C-alpha cells in the first residue's frame, strides 16, 4: 500500500472507530455490496464484525451482487448482515407485476429501497455510507459527517477517497472484486435500471440511463414521496 | 472424575484436538508429490475443508497386480447454501471440471456440486479457481454443519427467497472461524498478532459428527425435512415466512449388522418465530456439541443423542439455551418430495426450467451433451447477467430467471445438444449416490447401475398400466444413506457387489421410514419380488393412494 493510501486508510479507520464509539449500538453500515463496497466492509470487519450491515435486496438485483455479498460475508466474517426487503403489501398494491421501474422509477425506488431502509433504521441514530465526492457532481460536496434527509446522522468515511485509493486498498487487502466490474459495470444497482458503461463515460452513467434520475432516493429529501 | 478418566474418545477427537484448528500437517502433505493421497490423519482433516481422498476402485486389481499404489485423487465438494449459482460461477465450475477434475460435475443431494478425480498436484489450483469464482469448499464435509439446503428456487416466491436467505445466514453463522482453508489452499498468510483464533461456537474439537440442516417451504418437501439433524418447516403468513416448525433428530446413516445404528425420521418439537432462527439452531447444535457421543463415531449423530437422553430432555435442554422456549408447533401439509420438472412461470413473468439430470451427473455423452448444453445456456447474452442456476436436493438443476427470448433460446440449445426431458415417471423420482468407482465406502454399484434397474422396473409398471404413477426410488451403494434411501417408497441399499437390501413402505412425502422386504438380493430377485407387489398395487389401490402407503395398508411390509 502506498504511503498516501496507508495514511488515508488509517485516518478513515480512526473516523470509523470514532463514529462507532459515539453512536455505540445505534449505528449501522448501509452497503450495496457494489464495486467499491468491500473497502468499508473490510474496515468494519477490522473494527467490529458484529456491526449491523443493512443490505437492500430490492428483488431486482443482479444475481452476481448476491453472490458477491455471500462471498464477502464469509471471507470478512461479518456477523450481522441484514437483508432488507420491500413490504409485500406495497408491492402487491403498487407493483404486482414487477414492472413499476419502467413506468415510475422514483416510486419503484421509494417502495423497494427508501421505505424499507427507513423502517430498518428504526431505533438507529446514525448510519455509514460509502459515498465519495468523486462519484458524481451531485456527490461532490458531501461532508464527512452530515445530517441526512431522514434526520439521522450520516457518516461518509470515504468522502475524500479517489479511484486510485480504492484500487490500492483492494490490492493491499487482497479483496475480491465484484464480478460485474470487469464486465463493464463500474456502478451497480438493480438489473432493471443499470446498463453497461461505454468507454469514456462517468462511472454512474449506467444508472437510470436515459432518465434525469441520478440517485435512488435514500440520500434525498423524503418530502413528497409516496407514503 | 474416575469415570471420566476411563472414557476412550474416538480417534478423530484426538486428530481434531491436535490439529491447531484444522491445519495439521496439510501444507507439508500437499507438497509431497511422491504420495498421491494424504496420511490417515490428513485424510480426516481435509474433510473439514470439503475434500475426500479417494481412489479409482476399478483400477485397484490391475494396479495391485503391477505392484502400483492405488490411483489416488481428491473429491472436492462446494459449500453452496440453497444451491444458487450465477451463470458466471457455473461457467467457472465448468472450466474447473475440464482443467482440474475428471471433466464432469456432480450435483449432490445436498444441493451443491462436487468434482471427482482431482489429482494432488491440481488441488490448490482447483480451490483457487473456486475461490476466484466467489465460492468455497469450507465445511462441505467433516464434523461440522454441512451445506444448508432449502426448498429449491429462491426466485419462485418471496417465501422461497426468504428460505434461501435463511439457509445462507445459517451457513455463514456456523462457518468455522479458522483461517486454515485460506492458508492451506489459497495461500493467504496466517494472520499473526491479531485477535486470538478461536471457534466460539464449535470449540477446538468441533462437533462429534456431521450436522445437517434443511429448510422446507410447504407444500414441497423436496429437501426431505425428516432426514436431517435439524430442519425447519416454514410457516408462511401473508406471503412472508413468519416462523418455522423445528424438526430434530433425523438421519439416514446406519451400518449393516449393527443394530445400535439405524435410520431415524425427525421429530417436530415446536415453533420459533423467524427472528429467532439462529438462536434456535445454535441451541440445537450446541446441545449436540455438548452431549453427542464422542466415543463412538457410529453412534455420534444427533439422532442417537436424542434417543439416549429422551426427546423431552432434549426439548428442555434446547429451551434452556434459548431466550424464550419454543412455542407449540403449527399446522403444515406436505404434498411430496419430488421436483416439479419442466418450465414454470412466476408472477413477474420470469421462466424457470427444472431440468432432470440422471443421478446428478453433468457430463457429455455421445447421445446427450448435457454439460456443453448447460455451459452454452449459462453463457447466453442477457441470461449470463440476470439468470441463475439452482441445484435441487433431488440432484436436478433449475435454469432460473429466463425471459421469453431466453426461454426459446434455452429450449433450442437443449434440443441441439440432444438433451431430452422425455423420461419415465419412475426415473423422475429416482436418485442414486455416487458409489463406485470413486467412493471408498461403496459396497455395490449405485449411480452407474440404477438407470438400468429403473428401466426394468419401468417395464413392470407399464405391464400393469402404471407408467404414469409417481414412485420414489432411491439407491445407495452402502448403508450411509447419501441418497436418503430409507424414506423412499422403493429403497435399495448395497450390501455386496450386485446385492441390495430392498425396502418398501416409505411415504410419498418422505415422512416415514421404509422396511426391509428382501435382504441381500440380486437384480433377478429384486424384480421377482417387486412384480407381484406392483401387480397387487395396480389392482387394489385406493384412489390417489401412493405405492408406499399401499404396501403398508396391504400389510406387505
Topology:
The complex is a heterodimer of chains A (227) and B (557).
Chain A: H1 3-22, E1 27-30, H2 38-47, E2 53-56, H3 63-76, E3 81-84, H4 88-94, H5 100-103, H6 105-120, E4 126-128, E5 145-147, E6 153-155, H7 163-173
Parallel strand pairs in A: 1-2, 1-4, 2-3, 4-6
Antiparallel strand pairs in A: 5-6
Chain B: H1 2-6, H2 11-17, H3 26-31, H4 40-48, E1 51-55, H5 60-65, E2 72-77, E3 84-85, H6 87-100, E4 105-107, E5 113-118, H7 123-132, E6 149-150, H8 158-173, H9 180-186, E7 213-216, E8 230-237, E9 240-248, E10 267-273, H10 277-291, H11 302-309, H12 311-320, E11 342-345, E12 351-355, E13 361-362, H13 370-378, H14 383-386, E14 388-391, E15 397-402, H15 404-416, H16 425-428, E16 430-432, H17 450-463, E17 473-476, E18 490-496, E19 499-504, E20 515-521, H18 523-540, H19 547-553
Parallel strand pairs in B: 6-7, 7-8, 16-17, 17-18
Antiparallel strand pairs in B: 1-2, 2-5, 3-14, 4-5, 4-13, 8-9, 9-10, 11-12, 12-15, 14-15, 18-19, 19-20
Percent helix range of chain A: 25-40%
The secondary-structure class of chain B comes to: alpha+beta
Strand order of the largest sheet of chain A: 3-2-1-4-6-5
**Gyration radius of chain A, in Å:** 17 Å
Amino acid at each position: 500500500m502506498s504511503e498516501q493510501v496507508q495514511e488515508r486508510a488509517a485516518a478513515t479507520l480512526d473516523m470509523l472507530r470514532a463514529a462507532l464509539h459515539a453512536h455505540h449500538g445505534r449505528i449501522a453500515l448501509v452497503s450495496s455490496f457494489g464495486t467499491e463496497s468491500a473497502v468499508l466492509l473490510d474496515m468494519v470487519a477490522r473494527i467490529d464484525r458484529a456491526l449491523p450491515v443493512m443490505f437492500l435486496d430490492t428483488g431486482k438485483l443482479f444475481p452476481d451482487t448476491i453472490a458477491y455479498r455471500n462471498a464477502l460475508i464469509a471471507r470478512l466474517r461479518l456477523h450481522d448482515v441484514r437483508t432488507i426487503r420491500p413490504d409485500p403489501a406495497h408491492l402487491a398494491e403498487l407493483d404486482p407485476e414487477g414492472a413499476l421501474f419502467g413506468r415510475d422509477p422514483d416510486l419503484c425506488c421509494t417502495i423497494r429501497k427508501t421505505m424499507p431502509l427507513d423502517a430498518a433504521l428504526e431505533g438507529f441514530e446514525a448510519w455509514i455510507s460509502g459515498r465519495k465526492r468523486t462519484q458524481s457532481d451531485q456527490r461532490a460536496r458531501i461532508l464527512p459527517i452530515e445530517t441526512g434527509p431522514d434526520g439521522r446522522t450520516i457518516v461518509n468515511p470515504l468522502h475524500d477517497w479517489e479511484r486510485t485509493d480504492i484500487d490500492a486498498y483492494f490490492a493491499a487487502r487482497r479483496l475480491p472484486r465484484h464480478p460485474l466490474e470487469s464486465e463493464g459495470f463500474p456502478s451497480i444497482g438493480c438489473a432493471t435500471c443499470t446498463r453497461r458503461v461505454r468507454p469514456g463515460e462517468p462511472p454512474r452513467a449506467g444508472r437510470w440511463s436515459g432518465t434525469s434520475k441520478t440517485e435512488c432516493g435514500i440520500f434525498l429529501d423524503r418530502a413528497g414521496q409516496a407514503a | 472424575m474416575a469415570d471420566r478418566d476411563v472414557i476412550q474418545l474416538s480417534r478423530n477427537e484426538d486428530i481434531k484436538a491436535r490439529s491447531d484448528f484444522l491445519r495439521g500437517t496439510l501444507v507439508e502433505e500437499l507438497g509431497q508429490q511422491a504420495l498421491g493421497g494424504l496420511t490417515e490423519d490428513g485424510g480426516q482433516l481435509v474433510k473439514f475443508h470439503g475434500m475426500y481422498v479417494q481412489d479409482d476402485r476399478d483400477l485397484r486389481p490391475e494396479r495391485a497386480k503391477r505392484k502400483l499404489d492405488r490411483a489416488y485423487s481428491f473429491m472436492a465438494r462446494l459449500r453452496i447454501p440453497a444451491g444458487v449459482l450465477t451463470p458466471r460461477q457455473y461457467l467457472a465450475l465448468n472450466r474447473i471440471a475440464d482443467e482440474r477434475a475428471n471433466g464432469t460435475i456432480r450435483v449432490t443431494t445436498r444441493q451443491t456440486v462436487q468434482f471427482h478425480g482431482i489429482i494432488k498436484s491440481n488441488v490448490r489450483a482447483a480451490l483457487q479457481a473456486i475461490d476466484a469464482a466467489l465460492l468455497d469448499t469450507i465445511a462441505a464435509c467433516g464434523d461440522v454443519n454441512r451445506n444448508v439446503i432449502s426448498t429449491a428456487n429462491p426466485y419462485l416466491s418471496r417465501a422461497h427467497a426468504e428460505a434461501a436467505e435463511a439457509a445462507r445466514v445459517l451457513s455463514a453463522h456456523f462457518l468455522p472461524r479458522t483461517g486454515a482453508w485460506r492458508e492451506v489452499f489459497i495461500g493467504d498468510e496466517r494472520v499473526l498478532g491479531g485477535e486470538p483464533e478461536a471457534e466460539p461456537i464449535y470449540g477446538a474439537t468441533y462437533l462429534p459428527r456431521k450436522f445437517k440442516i434443511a429448510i422446507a417451504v410447504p407444500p414441497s418437501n423436496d429437501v426431505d425435512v425428516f432426514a436431517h439433524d435439524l430442519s425447519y418447516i416454514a410457516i408462511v403468513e401473508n406471503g412472508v415466512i413468519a416462523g418455522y416448525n423445528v424438526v430434530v433428530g433425523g438421519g439416514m446413516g446406519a451400518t449393516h449388522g449393527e443394530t445400535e445404528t439405524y435410520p431415524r425420521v425427525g421429530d417436530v418439537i415446536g415453533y420459533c418465530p423467524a427472528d429467532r432462527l439462529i438462536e434456535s439452531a445454535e441451541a440445537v447444535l450446541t446441545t449436540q456439541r455438548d452431549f453427542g457421543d464422542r466415543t463412538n463415531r457410529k453412534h455420534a449423530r444427533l439422532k442417537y443423542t436424542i434417543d439416549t437422553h429422551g426427546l423431552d430432555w432434549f426439548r428442555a435442554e434446547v429451551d434452556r439455551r434459548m431466550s424464550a422456549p419454543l412455542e407449540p408447533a403449527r399446522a403444515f401439509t406436505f404434498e411430496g418430495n419430488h421436483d416439479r420438472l419442466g418450465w414454470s412461470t412466476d408472477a413477474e413473468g420470469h421462466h424457470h426450467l427444472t431440468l432432470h439430470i440422471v443421478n446428478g451427473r453433468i457430463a457429455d455423452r455421445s447421445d446427450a451433451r448435457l454439460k456443453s448444453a448447460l455451459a452454452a445456456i449459462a453463457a447466453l447474452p442477457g441470461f449470463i447477467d440476470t439468470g441463475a442456476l439452482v441445484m435441487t436436493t433431488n440432484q436436478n438443476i433449475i435454469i432460473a430467471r429466463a425471459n421469453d427470448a431466453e426461454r426459446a433460446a434455452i429450449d433450442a440449445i437443449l434440443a441441439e445438444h440432444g438433451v431430452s426431458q422425455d423420461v419415465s415417471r419412475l426415473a423422475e423420482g429416482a436418485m442414486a449416490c455416487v458409489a463406485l468407482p470413486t467412493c471408498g465406502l461403496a459396497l455395490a454399484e449405485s449411480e452407474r447401475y440404477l438407470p438400468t434397474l429403473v428401466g426394468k422396473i419401468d417395464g413392470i409398471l407399464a405391464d400393469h398400466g402404471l407408467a404414469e404413477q409417481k414412485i420414489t426410488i432411491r439407491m445407495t451403494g452402502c448403508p450411509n444413506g447419501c441418497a436418503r434411501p430409507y424414506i423412499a417408497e422403493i429403497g435399495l441399499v448395497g450390501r455386496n457387489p450386485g446385492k441390495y437390501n430392498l425396502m418398501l413402505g416409505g411415504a410419498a412425502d418422505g415422512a416415514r421410514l421404509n422396511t426391509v422386504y428382501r435382504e441381500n438380493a440380486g437384480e433377478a430377485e429384486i424384480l421377482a419380488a417387486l412384480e407381484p407387489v406392483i401387480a397387487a398395487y395396480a389392482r387394489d389401490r385406493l384412489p390417489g393412494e401412493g405405492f408406499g402407503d399401499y404396501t403398508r395398508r396391504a400389510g406387505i411390509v
